[in-house]
Request: fold
Amino acid sequence: MGRLADLTVRHRMTVPAIFFLESVKPLSFVGSQALHFFEPMVRAFFNVQDYERFALMMERRENLEALLVKIEARDDEARSREAERRARDREERRARKQGKEGS
Reply:
C-alpha cells in the first residue's frame, strides 16, 4: 500500500485517486473479483505477485480506507516538503537581491 500511495503522490494523482477510491468503495469486492478475472491478461504488464496482492487487498473495504489514509498522509508530507522548499527558495532570492542592492 505504501508503494501505491507513493506512486500516486509522485504522479500528482492524489485527488483523482481519492475520488475514484471513495466512489468504488461499495463495489470493492466485485472489483477485486474482476481483477482476478483479468489476471491472465494483465500478467504481461505487471509483476504478478504484486497484482495478486492488490486484488486480495481490494476484497476488504477497510483496506481501501487504509489506502486512502496512506495516500492522504503521503500527499500532506509532499505538500509540506514543497512549501518548505519554496520558502527556502524565496529566502535565497531575497538574500541575493539584497546582496546585489548593497554592492
